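Quick one, probably user error.
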């Protein structure tokens, strides 16, 4: 019996109704539901949030307020092996970038995977995103933390990659090979792979 009653109620709810009947029910519902507002601790109505009633020490403050000044960091994906810093600056036209604002992230085969870009302001980042979209979304650009920018090693185009070096090569062998060049011997790294 209980199952039959539920089926009848469900069937009643699914029956088509006229527009006037539905409008009447909606207006009836709206007239009987009282509007409630959130109250503050003191019992009065809450004030709408403004710049003045934000607490600067609140941890939520950084989330609610947009990032308005300072550098903004982004990762640009979809690069080719021969991509240069000047290519990225050209793609992100109008962002006031310099070669010092671009770092490359390399994989273990020393191919560029991404470029870390330091934008001088959030408006420069927005301009860069619009420039990428305008050029057909060949690249993907996303915001990252400053820690990723700091973690990325900066080579400044001043590195030599020696591939096919025998496993028993010593630092003296590399010193002899690079004799005559101005380089910092402490920056030599042996990478097995």
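Nope, works fine. Designed sequence:
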């Amino acid at each position: 019996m209980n199952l039959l009653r539920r089926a009848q109620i469900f069937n009643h709810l699914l029956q088509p109704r006229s527009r006037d009947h539905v409008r009447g029910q909606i207006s009836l519902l709206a007239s009987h539901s009282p509007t409630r507002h959130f109250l503050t601790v003191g019992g009065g109505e809450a004030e709408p949030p403004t710049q003045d009633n934000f607490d600067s020490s609140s941890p939520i403050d950084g989330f609610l307020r947009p990032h308005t000044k300072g550098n903004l960091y982004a990762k640009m994906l979809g690069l080719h092996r021969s991509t240069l810093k000047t290519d990225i600056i050209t793609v992100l036209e109008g962002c006031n970038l310099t070669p010092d604002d671009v770092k490359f992230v390399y994989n273990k085969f020393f191919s560029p995977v991404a470029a870390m870009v330091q934008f001088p302001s959030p408006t420069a980042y927005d301009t860069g995103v619009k420039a990428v979209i305008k050029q057909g979304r060949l690249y993907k650009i996303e915001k990252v933390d400053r820690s990723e920018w700091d973690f990325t090693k900066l080579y400044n185009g001043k590195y030599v990659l020696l591939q096919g070096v025998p496993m028993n090569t010593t630092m003296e062998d590399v010193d002899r090979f690079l004799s005559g060049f101005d380089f910092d011997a402490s920056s030599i790294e042996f990478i097995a792979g």
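Residues 19-32 form the longest helix (14 residues).
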